[in-house]
Amino acid sequence: MFHNIYKLILSFSALSLLLSNLSLAEVVKKIEITGNERIPAQTIIMFSSISVDDDLKNDSINDVLKNIYDSKFFSNVNIKFDNNILSINVQENPIIESVEFTGIKAKRIREVLNKIIVLKSRTSFNETSLKSDKKNISLALKELGFYFPKVEIFL
């Protein structure tokens, strides 16, 4: 008897949770992109993995934000969902004009360094990749026999 009541309460709770999640979803009727200069709005929408007529929940908004940041093209992203309009405002990372290694005369060492860095000419700049590249350059130089390398970045 108690087992059946327990099953009934559990089923009712699960159904309530399912229905409450469905009621929190809203349908995206329009997507507006602002702040972009070089990157087309359709590309940003593609990064977001959301489309018009998709159901949007709070978790989905977080996923959209994460997906856009994961592209590494943007330094700041703001998302607002109001009246079934998803507004995405972005601030693009600058583009790197050129990358040069000074103080290294050997072409083979420059080639090794060019292979290990993430930030290259004509790519988007971001601080995280810069720090990683600086660390990787220092480690590579140590492996090549330069035990106290001094790596300086000039922007």
Summarize the structure.
The protein has 155 residues and is an alpha+beta fold. Helix content is 46%, strand content 17%.
Number of helices, counting only DSSP H or I runs of 4 residues or more: 5
Structural class computed from helices and strand pairing: alpha+beta
Strand order in the sheet with the most strands: 2-5-4
Characterize the overall form. Answer: elongated
Q: What's the pLDDT, averaged over the residues?
A: 85
Measure the end-to-end span: 74 Å
Radius of gyration computed on alpha carbons = 24 Å
Order of helices and strands: HEEHEHEEHH
Q: How large a portion of the residues is in β-strands, by DSSP E?
A: 15-25%
Percent helix range: 40-55%
Question: Could you outline the blueprint of secondary structure elements for this entry?
Answer:
Layout lengths: L1 H23 L1 E2 L2 E5 L6 H8 L6 E2 L1 H13 L3 E9 L2 E8 L14 H10 L10 H17 L12
Parallel strand pairs: 2-5
Antiparallel strand pairs: 1-3, 4-5
Features:
155 residues; alpha+beta; three-stranded mixed β-sheet; 5 helices; 5 strands; elongated
Please describe what this structure looks like.
With 155 residues, the chain is α+β, with helices and mostly antiparallel strands. Helices cover 46% and strands 17% of the residues. It contains 5 helices and 5 strands. Strands 2-5-4 form a 3-stranded mixed beta sheet, with helices on one face. Strands 1-3 form a two-stranded antiparallel sheet. The protein is elongated and about 60 Å long. Residues 18-23 have low confidence and may be disordered.
